[in-house]
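Sample pair:
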Amino acid sequence: MVSSLISSVSGALSATGPDWVDLSVGGITLRVNVPDTAVSSVGRLGDIALLYTSLQVREDSLTLFGFPTEDERQTFETLLDISGIGPRLALAMLGRFSPQALAQTVEAGDTRTLSTVPGVGRRTASRIVLELKGKLDLDFGDAPGAAPDSDLVDALTALGYGDSEAREALSRTNASESEEDRIRAALEHLAGE
């Protein structure tokens, strides 16, 4: 499998763009495509950054995709196994959903929420649910804060947000914070979309 040829890259962050970062590694600068939400979390210019990578080989190009976590890389490669999902669309999905939120959305069969990703229509969303249901078992249940408290989800859904949308926002909060702080952070995330 070619995608595992380069499993991670660590180097000095030398430039960033809307959906890419440049890492300087041993005298070479690599452009790594990342989810747009990950650009700011990679670090500041000059910092040493580590990205888990997937090398995608096409007839006319070699493209390196990078992710802050191993779970994101695994989810990316799982998405590529679906007919009609290419690297750019898989990257856009990871820009919209954390791996945990995507797994929850797929398990709930929520095609409406999946369709909020640009380029994903109802038919593609249905195919994603059909092909991924039960396959995104990345042991999220054991991770602290991976399954937000049902009370917090209920609080957000009472404000008019969808269940998957609420879970996605809560998955991006710090599980060690108080419930009030997590709700506040989730609302800030939801307002920013």
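The chain has three domains: 2-67, 70-132, 144-192.
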